[in-house]
Amino acid sequence: MPTASRHILHVDMDAFFASIEQRDNPDLIGKPVVVGGGDNRGVVAAASYEVREFGVRSAMPMREARRRCPDLICVRPQMGKYRTVSADIFTIFREFTPLIEGLSLDEAFLDVTASLSLFGSAADIARAIKKRVHDVTGLTASVGAAENKLVAKIASDLEKPDGLVLVPQDRVRQTLDPLAVQVIPGIGKQTLRRLHQADIRTIGDLRRAPAAALDAIFGRFAQRTRDRASGIDDRPVVSERGDKSISAEETFDTDLTARKILYKKLLQLTERTSGRLRAKSLTAGTVQLKIRQSDFTTCTRQRSLRPPSSGTDTIYHAARELLDVWLREHPDKSIRLLGVGGSNLAQSAQADLFGATPGGAGVDKLVDQIRNKFGSASVGRARSLDNDQIG
Amino acid sequence: MKLSAGREALLKPLQIVIGVVERRQTMPILANVLLVAQDGQLSITATDLEVELVASGEVEVETAGEVTVPGRKLLDICRALPENAPVSISQSGEKVLIRSGRSKFSLTTLPAAEFPSVEDISADEALELPQNTVQRLLDKTHFSMAQQDVRYYLNGLLIETGGKQLRAVATDGHRLALCQVTLDEGSALPEKQVIVPRKGVLELQRLLNGEGTLTMELGTNHIRMQLDGVRFTSKLIDGRFPEYDRVIPKDTSNELLADRALLRGALQRTSILSNEKYRGIRLLIRDGAVLLQAHNPEQEEAEDELEVEYSGEEIEIGFNVTYLLEALSAIDSEQVTLSVLDGNSSCLLRDPGNDDCKYVVMPMRL
């Protein structure tokens, strides 16, 4: 597949969880810190660079870690905090490119090919990202830059922590050849043992190995493995970010019990949710109803939509069914908040036969057009109007 | 109730009705079948409150009576007995005893009076129809019914009568199938439109074997058919079916004529590498040929080309390939015409020599 040359970055935070804990508790700076379950049956989720000197690695049983480093300080993980920092980091990534493939909370591929004209070279972008990440979070990241994901990922690991390694296309071989074979993703313990038996230890050995040897070890993946050893990798950066769900909710001025008013509010919320779905050409495969009672007890109910839809009437119908069931189960309870959401989102590519029927997508389309032009209060279904809006 | 019969006289009607007995019921009695013994007949009824089936077998009735017993257990017992074994069934207090040779079974019962069976469906008249006519109507359309759609009136098959015509229409909102049959004899049919729920359609298809006749009654809330000693009753879906006629393309001037088997083969091959979820396939229709293309998220690609008769404008259009394949499988003729105006309009597929069956498929943006 002949493709124009790409510029891919692999950004990997340095000892992410442990660094956050050290940042937030200066007593831990310079100390052998691990994040993980406290008792001896837990495993190490993250290890600071200080403790790595003792041979402690992530995924190692805590008992083993304590054996290697009796003075280690174990901190309980606070995933909520790590997620918040992660969100900040990904927000920074998005300043540079929309093509982001997140691998975990602290690691991502970025395709910056189309960003070069805006921000300079790939190296400039890598430096800018590192600086922004440090300014915003106080943490360091290591970045690898190359023509593809494989080489970028290998490169980011070469000068950790706080590294920046560029591997231009003409230096791929000389960079990879001396590295140990297990650096290539997908080469595990078993494969490694067999490679060593065949006296293949470096990526260079692997690249030059006779076909017969590779066939025996890798079977139908032999050619792909040789490609990897040569630093060839066509895999695109797949940005799977996209909305997971779209919803609208409202807390009422006074708690509601009257069915008629609840239906009206439900329809208003549905109009907002379905309008946003349509604006993004998405359909929802699942409809959620969120209900909060006066005493703040909150529950969500959901049902699937077949086929997935973004039609106001279809979503309202489903949400109302859910509300009716809830009302039957909770008679005389008053409702403080209602929310209508759609999830299981997909691009709506399939056209509808009855799209132009009255009350169907035809109306939705018209409503969307009018709202786009005159604002969201300009038009809506009569049923959704509050009484004081009439007259 | 007391009766005796050969194993087969019990097994056959049980096998016919058992499909209606749901594995998980909302009411305990729905796991049971109703046994009614009288006049040398044992009739067995099963229902899920939507579809009811009654089948009977010839038995020797010693004492007439009725009772309900667990349906699947009774079937399993009869099935497990040796072939042609004589079986006796008798009610004894709250139990039903089944004996055959040295085997004895005692089953729990529930009162027959509690069994929700449908008697009179208040139909105006009974139509006599050839079985194969009804079978054709269902076979040519059933696959386009919706499944658990919130538009509940699409989860079934529209049956329409009027004049000398009998018509079936199914649609899931993305594609539509229509088949109509003109009856050559008999008087004009009443003007009626009913929607038979999906489960009823599928059960009915199991019963039809293409030979003989059946009687069909359309009531206000039910449809009933009697054939080969079996009585099928289904509730109707209470709703308004969409005005299907409006979505069948009228302008069919831009037509493509293809060999049906070749087109099907090319679509099948190309579909292997289409997205498994959306099943999208692109057709490039141009002078004398159609180019088919598909690709999947793994960036694998398939391409095929087929010679066809076509001389209109070049059209690029995408479809869910499953919809095209199912329509092509339902068409009988060697050749098939596809009428399509442009890349955004629906496509009409049919037999070029016969307008009885029509298939409409909406395109997909690719």
What does this structure look like?
- The complex is a heterodimer of chains A (391) and B (366).
- By secondary structure, chain A is α+β, with helices and mostly antiparallel strands.
- Chain A folds into three domains: 1-166, Reverse transcriptase/Diguanylate cyclase domain (Alpha-Beta Plaits), CATH 3.30.70; 177-229, DNA polymerase, domain 1 (Orthogonal Bundle); 245-349, DNA polymerase, Y-family, little finger domain (Dna Ligase, domain 1), CATH 3.30.1490.
- Helix content of chain A is 40%, strand content 22%.
- Chain A has 15 helices and twelve strands.
- A five-stranded mixed beta sheet of chain A has the order 5-6-1-7-8.
- In chain A, 35% of the residues are buried.
- Chain B is of the alpha+beta class.
- Chain B has three domains: 2-114, DNA Polymerase III, Chain A, domain 2 (Roll), CATH 3.10.150; 126-246, DNA Polymerase III, Chain A, domain 2 (Roll), CATH 3.10.150; 255-361, DNA Polymerase III, Chain A, domain 2 (Roll), CATH 3.10.150.
- Chain B is built from six helices and 25 strands.
- Chain B has helices at residues 7-17, 71-80, 131-139, 198-207, 260-271, 321-330, and strands at residues 2-6, 32-38, 41-47, 51-58, 60-63, 65-70, 86-92, 95-100, 103-108, 126-130, 156-163, 165-171, 175-182, 189-197, 213-218, 222-227, 230-235, 255-259, 280-286, 289-295, 301-307, 315-320, 335-340, 347-350, 357-361.
- In chain B, the strands form four sheets. An eight-stranded antiparallel beta sheet of chain B has the order 6-2-3-4-17-16-15-10. Chain B has an eight-stranded antiparallel beta sheet with strand order 14-11-12-13-25-24-23-18. In chain B, strands 5-1-7-8-9 form a five-stranded antiparallel beta sheet.
- In chain B, β12 (165-171) and β13 form a beta hairpin.
- In chain B, α1 (7-17) crosses α2 and α5 (260-271) packs antiparallel against α6 (321-330).
- The longest helix of chain B has 12 residues, at 260-271.
- The radius of gyration of chain B is 25 Å and the shape is elongated.
- The N and C termini of chain B lie far apart (65 Å).
- The model of chain B has no long low-confidence stretch (mean pLDDT 93).
